[in-house]
Amino acid sequence: MNKELKFKKLESLINEYTKEDVVVAFSGGVDSSLLLKLSVDKAKNHNTKVYGVTFVADLQPHEDLGITDEVCKEIGATHIVLQLSQLDIAAVRENHIDRCYHCKRTLFSSLLEYAHSLNINTVIDGTNADDLLSYRPGIKALEDLKIISPLRVASLSKSEVREMAGRLGISVAQRPSSPCLATRFEYNTHLDIESIKMVEKGEAYLRNIASRNFRVRMSGLTARIECDTDIFDAVIKKKEEIIEYFKEIGFEYISLDLEGFRSGSMDSKMKF
Fold this sequence. Notes:
There is one protein chain. By secondary structure, the chain is of the alpha/beta class. It has 2 domains: 3-167, HUPs (Rossmann fold), CATH 3.40.50; 192-267, Alpha-Beta Plaits. The protein has helices at residues 3-17, 30-46, 63-75, 90-93, 99-117, 138-144, 150-153, 158-167, 193-206, 232-237, 239-248, and strands at residues 22-25, 50-56, 78-83, 122-124, 214-219, 222-227, 253-256. A 4-stranded parallel sheet has the order 3-2-1-4, with helices on both faces. Strand 1 (22-25), helix 2 (30-46) and strand 2 form a beta-alpha-beta unit. The chain is globular.
């Protein structure tokens, strides 16, 4: 199916879903922003309501909350914030290989409870077709809970989502992905708030150098920085400042990964 047909299929799906009130799991990334924009627009045809619901949790980058609020205002959506503690879940806290399943199941169970409190039965999320190509045990949790993933149903890839979002003038169309902070740690490593905050601060600092893909992978007190290879020179030029800041926030060793940014690099040995 070519992309134009995919776009039409997505619009048709959203138009059908918004014949009733809808809850959109809204992270502020391009995937969920596209769904929220389309849902708000299509809901006007049916005089229904759309709620963009954001999780504020231990493993979500703090800056995401400000972005979600801005995008909701831009789109004209009702923004709801649910606060949860992912580290209360043992499998998440110990970063088991199926961590994502338990995390998603807990978060989206809470989201379903919220939706049902509003007598809403349709809950949608931004899983796209590319997500099926990597190790994502959380997708099974979404399936178990019967969460609808329209981008996946319409077979839209990440690049196609970005293109459609750009056409609609969504401000975060080219925003780099911002996955759960647990992905920065080796599996079966105990997660604590202090280490999570170190990683979050490190990545926020690096994004001041360039608004590009950055990951700070943490092993012990070593930071392994992944970034797009075409900005290696910019990072190296700032190395003294980076070293000073990273040591200030608690790292002892700071390295630049010569393979560059790889989404899901901690999953390279996983089978799916």
